[in-house]
Amino acid sequence: MNMKFAELLKNQIIGNDINLVSFDTNSLSEWLKSNFVSLLGNHNISVNTITLTKLDNNSYKSLFSLNAQNEKDSYVMEFGILKSNEYIEQANEILNRLSVLFLEDNFSKLDLLNILKKNRFNLSKINNVNTLLIY
Description:
By secondary structure, the protein is α+β, with helices and mostly antiparallel strands. The chain has one domain (5-134). Helix content is 27%, strand content 33%. Strands 1-2-3-4-6-5 form a 6-stranded mixed beta sheet. The two termini are 18 Å apart.
């Protein structure tokens, strides 16, 4: 089963106005695990274990790999918060990765859009924060 977990999580963040800026690392970790299990459950997939691993990547303030398993299958996705728009091109290196970038009010829209031409993305204002979600 090839599900687009990054897109499903992106839809949840936008649909529920999730204020990712307000999370510290521990809160973000717990929220990611809980919502990954919830997304799987919404698609009738039950899991026995979920593992969240912090990954090292210089392009990201924080980057996590989520792995949920049951008796038959393993489901994996990544979630990361980019350091700046300089790193947008690295955002889609991994299938099923959702990358988030919090944008300053004075960001250069034109340069940003030119960089994003090859990516799937949403630009949304969530709790007064311009939030770019690349999936």
